[in-house]
Amino acid sequence: MGTGGAALVAAALAVVVVTRLWTVLLHLVWRPYAVARAFARQGVRGPPYRVFVGNSKEVQAMRAATSGDTLDLNSHDYIPRVDVALRQGKEVFLAQRELQFIAFASIYNVRVPGMQYVPTKANVRRWQLERTVRGTLMAIIGERLAAAKEARGYGSDLLGLMLEANAAGDDGGKRQQDMSMDEIVDECKTFFVAGHDTTSHLLTWAMFLLGTHPEWQQRLREEVIRECGGAEVLLRGDSLNKLKLVTMVLYETLRLYGTLPMIARQATADSDLCGVKVPKGTLLLIPIAMLHRDEEVWAADAGAFNPLRFRDGMGRAAAHPNALLSFSSGPRSCIGQDFAMLEAKATLALILRRFAFEVAAEYVHAPADFLTLQTSKGLPVVLRLLDPYSWQETCCSPIGVHLQFDDSNCNVLSRSPRGVHLRRRP
Ligand code: HEM
């Protein structure tokens, strides 16, 4: 290559480097400061932004400071434990009563652009897991495609419908509803994650609340037996739909211990949120758990377990009909909410018909936010078998169980005079 060629390559490289540098500066310096200034002018303030780390360090320090705290069993105020940034936001929120939302420009982990491509230990593990997930899903899809070739069809479930949409795209003309294989794999991943942990945590927290409120547990048991019959009767969808008290308890569980304590939305255009100007691209964190404890919306007993607030339905439980945000709201709300509620009702009905239960003494009440709201060390409960005729406790010894609602994650920890102990696999 001549001198001219080398100069050309160097110039091209320089253009690429300068463009990249400009983008990095824009994202890491100019934009965060501009957004923080824009919000500050409107009265929404937080700790000052620092290049690269934002407010992550403050958030991490505050989370670390509260991680050892445990709560009283009657306290449902885990906000300071799981999101101390929200507590700080609450101060801003309260100080600026006229404002209707809190904006956070910080995220917990520092995100350096391009870092996701660096083979760090965590990234290598992530890549491995992604390969495994994709491989497993593609194997399932492969079986369906093979079955379809034998003219047995794609199946009538969600995967079958998506594969049909994929095949429809094979005839050349692309339609809006056609799906690529990558889109199908992504949808499957979403459903695996969104459809499993969420319901299992809802059930765990419902068991916690019923285990600490025996009077409600008994009311629910009576309702289940009245509407669905005893343990020997098969559960039916129509009888599950009649379980009003169970539904009320599940809503109250979702309010106090909703699986997703916070969701995020990005402004796709410059917007006006109740008088606060939100610039395009701003990431807004919606602190669901905190909103669910707002006394102006949920009444003075917002911090207490009171399923009766839902006696006239979800829409009338609070000052705003859409106040319960556990499944989010609007066009991107949870697609599986009816299914989740039915699943939870059926599981609770099965348990309530067979067992009386209480939270074991060794339980540590320290809800933790690992993307979903979880118990820190499982939920040890003591189950007492009920006599199927009298609904009284039998004379069998109680069984101590670590509940996880996921048998693939449980194993027998020990057998003790009190029964079998199960614990989550590491
Ligand atoms: C108690 C159980 C559940 C809770 C609390 C819950 C909560 C939520 C929330 C809050 C969202 C919105 C997330 C966001 O916008 O960032 C969501 C979305 C979603 N959920 Fe659920 N969910 C539950 C169960 C399920 C189940 C059982 C399924 C599937 C069978 C499911 C599938 C989905 C899907 C696919 C989305 C994404 C919808 C979209 O983006 O358009 N969820 N869920």
TrEMBL record:
Binding site for heme: 334
Entry GO CC: membrane
Cofactor(s) needed by this chain: heme
GO biological process: lipid metabolic process
Iron recorded as keyword: yes
Membrane-spanning residues: 6-30
Pfam family of the protein (one): p450
Localization, UniProt: Membrane
Presence of keyword Transmembrane: yes
UniProt-listed InterPro entries: Cyt_P450 (IPR001128), Cyt_P450_CS (IPR017972), Cyt_P450_E_grp-I (IPR002401), Cyt_P450_sf (IPR036396), Cytochrome_P450_Monooxygen (IPR050665)
Similarity-based family: Belongs to the cytochrome P450 family.
Protein name (record): Cytochrome P450
Natural source organism: Miscanthus lutarioriparius
